[in-house]
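Task 17 of the worksheet. Students: predict the tertiary structure of the chain below and write it out as structure tokens. Keep your answer in the requested format; marks are given for formatting as well as content.
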Amino acid sequence: MKAQKTEYPFRNPALDREARITDLLSRLTLDEKIALMDDHPKIPRLGLEFSGQVEGLHGLALGGPGHWEGRGKIVLPTTTFPQERGLGNTWDPALMQRIGALEGYEARYMYQSPRYDRGGLIVARPTSISRATRAGVAAKSPWAKTLISSAP
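Model answer:
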């Protein structure tokens, strides 16, 4: 986020999450809310620039030759794990928890550090990207099977 850090209540880390979210949503126009569904959303009047093209199917995918990190920004290495179908076949919920915790740590490090100025971080629940209508069926993700994704 590039604008004034505490001009708006949603920027104040001392407030609880619900208050910050409520404040931010109250300031967004309908068009801005729709724009947030883009692959690299920005709301310049509020100083918001969010990440785009980031996923964590088997490690935080950020940077590299595809320039997902955004050209001109610092490329930071992230941990890569076996493809999601291999991870799902371990049937090891504790391992999946550790992998998810590490991905979360890396994402927070990159997106909350003022040094890298990457903007906001939006985290969504796992989905089966592989089964998306427009993508056809590619590699299977562990979330494609209810039994695997419901493991504690």
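Marker's comment: The chain has two domains: 1-50, 54-126. Confidence is low (pLDDT under 50) at residues 1-5, 63-67.
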